[in-house]
């Protein structure tokens, strides 16, 4: 991948890359968020988006203040130009932090949000598992859930 691609997929680039190359490109020049910083960032107005599967969320719990959005509809729920945008969704200049199980899938989702113009979209290092392992607070129910 070229440096100018910044991890973004381009139809005009049919080259083949390994998932490790794609993941590295998606994380290039992005400040990923450590679990210990998350609650402060939420208090400061960051939008935390939990894209973990329902079975994981039900068995492991939720991050207080996070919004649950199914990965399959993430872009439609956040895009300000989408007819299916969620109420009170983030603006392009807002900090958007995507959370998955272990911090891999979320890096790719954050890359896709940057392609939509959310230039501060990033993800949580280590995902929910790192958050939980740091013994940070969880709740049995989501704060917000968008279908």
Mind sketching the topology for me?
Layout: H1 19-27, H2 38-43, E1 47-50, H3 54-60, E2 67-69, H4 74-78, E3 96-99, H5 105-115, E4 121-123, H6 127-133, E5 144-146
Parallel strand pairs: 1-2, 1-3, 2-5, 3-4
Helix pairs in contact: 1-5
Major sheet: arrangement of strands = 4-3-1-2-5
Give the oligomeric state.
single chain
Query: Could you say which overall geometry the principal axes of the C-alpha atoms support?
Result: globular
**The CATH topology, please?**
Oxidized Rhodanese, domain 1
Give your account of this protein's structure.
The structure is a single chain. The protein has 147 residues and is an alpha/beta fold. It has a single domain (31-146), classed as 3-Layer(aba) Sandwich (Oxidized Rhodanese, domain 1). 31% of the residues lie in helices and 12% in strands. It has helices at 19-27, 38-43, 54-60, 74-78, 105-115, 127-133, and strands at 47-50, 67-69, 96-99, 121-123, 144-146. A five-stranded parallel β-sheet has the order 4-3-1-2-5, with helices on one face. β1 (47-50), α3 (54-60) and β2 form a beta-alpha-beta unit. α1 crosses α5 (105-115). The longest helix has 11 residues, at 105-115. The protein is globular, with a radius of gyration of 15 Å. 30% of the residues are buried. Residues 1-5 have low confidence and may be disordered.
């Amino acid at each position: 991948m070229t440096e100018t691609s910044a991890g973004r997929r381009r139809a005009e680039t049919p080259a083949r890359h390994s998932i490790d190359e794609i993941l590295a490109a998606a994380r290039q020049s992005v400040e990923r968020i450590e679990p210990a910083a998350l609650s402060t960032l939420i208090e400061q107005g960051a939008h935390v988006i939990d894209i973990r599967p329902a079975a994981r969320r039900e068995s492991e719990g939720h991050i207080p203040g996070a919004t649950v959005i199914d990965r399959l509809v993430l872009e439609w729920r956040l895009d300000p130009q989408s007819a299916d945008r969620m109420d009170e969704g983030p603006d392009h200049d807002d900090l958007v932090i995507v959370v998955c199980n272990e911090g891999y899938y979320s890096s790719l989702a954050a890359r896709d949000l940057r392609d939509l113009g959310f230039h501060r979209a990033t993800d949580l290092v280590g995902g929910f598992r790192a958050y939980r392992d740091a013994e940070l607070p969880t709740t049995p129910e989501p704060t917000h859930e968008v279908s």
